[in-house]
Amino acid sequence: MKSIRQCLMSIKKAHSIAIITHTMPDADALASSVALSKLIQTNMLKKGEQKIIDILVDAKEINDVDQAILHGQTINKKHAKVYDLAIAIDCASLQRLGKYAKVFNAALSTINIDHHATNTEFAQNNLVLKTSSACEVLYIFAKMQQLEMPDDICKLIYSGIITDTNNLTQGTITVETHKIIAEFAEREIDLQSIHDHFFKNNTKSKTFLLKQALSTLTFMFDDRMTFMKLTKQNIADCKATYEDTYGIVDFGINIKGVELAVLAIKQADNSYYVSLRGKHDINVAHIAIAMNGGGHEKIAAFQYKGYLADLKQKLFEECQKELTAHPQKDVFGNLFTSNTNLDDVQVEE
Ligand SMILES: [Mn+2]
């Protein structure tokens, strides 16, 4: 609690604030950045006070769906040489800030607001809570400090929650997460439109990219794992953006019996960005960490510099370890019965 109050104090004190989110930003990264900027503007300015609040994000491209989050915002315009305060949001490590890590390091004080279990607590003040999204951390922060949250901020927070949990199907979803959504529903905020915006709005390009990825899909380890790959060229051919690759790996994990899904994307510099998804008892963070990456139990990623053959060899070894440690699970057998342990069920002979 001490750190939450300290965060508020240093935000109030600062005349210039840089809000920095991670490279290749997703909806949660952008929504939490904008929501934080608006929270400060709505709640933390003294009468007549003007603060510099700059949103910085090391992004080459942002797709149209996520771009909508930035509507009315100017990003990547620096209005201070050295900021009084830099706030990293949705970043598990300093590295994730990309080229803006320098700005973060130069700032007079620093805050790290995040929800990743692998967060390295790299700031002076670290507000890291294991929740659904950076947006949910922000909501908790705002509630604890009794900050005003107008509808536009709630919409941003809802956006971060539903996208980082893939429509409330994965990640850290708690009673609190549901309560936040219930509160927004009670306020009659138009949640359906936001939902449709993120989940029923795939572009033709993204769909073609998905088709490409699926054409490379292979099953491994007794069909418990899927592997897909994409290249920068595939993305260009489909006139898609890098962000369009997001969510493709889920088509692997959504298959019956598959408990581990991998998507490897070859980048322009020949390095690979590898997305991992887990199901049941599989913890993909173990695999990501072994490969010098990070993330959550069911969603993780890492970068790899080297040949695909070497990547595959190392990665598949780690995957096999994780799969062997957790035998295949059939969770559907007793899904709709109240008996959680089938051994307890009396069978008449
Ligand atoms: Mn996030």
Description:
The protein is α/β, with parallel strands linked by helices and 349 residues long. It has two domains: 198 residues, inorganic pyrophosphatase (n-terminal core) (Alpha-Beta Complex); 122 residues, Diaminopimelate Epimerase, Chain A, domain 1. It contains 13 helices and eleven strands. It has a six-stranded mixed beta sheet, sandwiched between helices. Strand 3, helix 4 and strand 4 form a beta-alpha-beta unit. The longest helix has 18 residues. The radius of gyration is 21 Å and the shape is globular. The model has no long low-confidence stretch (mean pLDDT 93). It binds manganese (II) ion. Manganese (II) ion binds next to loops.
What does the average pLDDT come to?
Answer: 93
* CATH architecture descriptor name of the largest domain: Alpha-Beta Complex
- Helix residue percentage: 25-40%
Q: CATH H level of the largest domain: which superfamily?
A: inorganic pyrophosphatase (n-terminal core)
Question: What fold name stands as the CATH topology of the largest domain?
Answer: inorganic pyrophosphatase (n-terminal core)
**How many whole angstroms does the radius of gyration measure?**
21 Å
- How many domain regions? 2
Ligands and ions found: manganese (II) ion
SS-based structural class?
Answer: alpha/beta
What is the β-strand count? 11
What is the CATH level 1 assignment of the largest domain?
Answer: Alpha Beta
Question: What would you call the shape?
Answer: globular
Number of helices: 13
User: What share of residues are in beta strands?
Assistant: 15-25%
Strand order of the largest sheet: 6-7-8-9-11-10
Largest sheet: 6 strands, mixed
| Spans where pLDDT lies below 50 across 5 or more residues | none
Order of helices and strands: HEHEHEHEEHHHHHEEHHEEHEEH
First-to-last CA distance: 59 Å
